[in-house]
Design a protein that fits this description.
The protein is mainly β and 99 residues long. The chain has a single domain, classed as Roll (SH3 type barrels), CATH 2.30.30. The protein contains no helices and 10 strands. The chain has strands spanning 3-6, 12-15, 20-23, 30-32, 41-44, 50-52, 55-64, 67-76, 79-82, 86-87. The strands form 4 sheets. Strands 6-3-10 form a 3-stranded antiparallel sheet, with no helix packed on it. β4 and β5 form a beta hairpin. The radius of gyration is 12 Å and the shape is globular.
Length: 99
């Protein structure tokens, strides 16, 4: 059963058993409280991390190992990383948009 939760950024996130995606090898990616480098870093992912993407939203344009994108992935309540560092196999959205 799906459940909706509000994360600390105020986004509605549907809790599903989300697929996990690999973060680019050799990168320790900053996790931010919102979809931009203007938001504070809340933690740093370890090398060889995988993440579940709960929802996605547009934010600041970022260039990384998987291209240039403005898509940001919500990986936990109040935690975002640029999709440019996540191997999703797509240049577009692979999860629902964050409300």
């Amino acid at each position: 059963m799906d459940t909706d939760e509000k994360n600390t950024a105020g986004d509605t996130v549907t809790a599903l058993s989300a697929k996990r995606y690999a973060v680019a090898p050799g990168y320790r990616v900053n996790v931010r409280s919102g979809p931009s480098t203007q938001y504070p870093v809340v933690r740093v992912l370890p090398l060889d991390a995988t993440v579940a993407i709960h929802c996605q939203k547009n934010g600041e344009w970022i260039s990384g190992p998987y291209g240039t994108t403005r898509i940001w992935d919500n990986i936990a309540p109040g935690e975002y990383i640029s999709d440019a560092y996540v191997r999703t196999g797509s240049d577009g959205f692979v999860a629902p948009r964050c409300a």
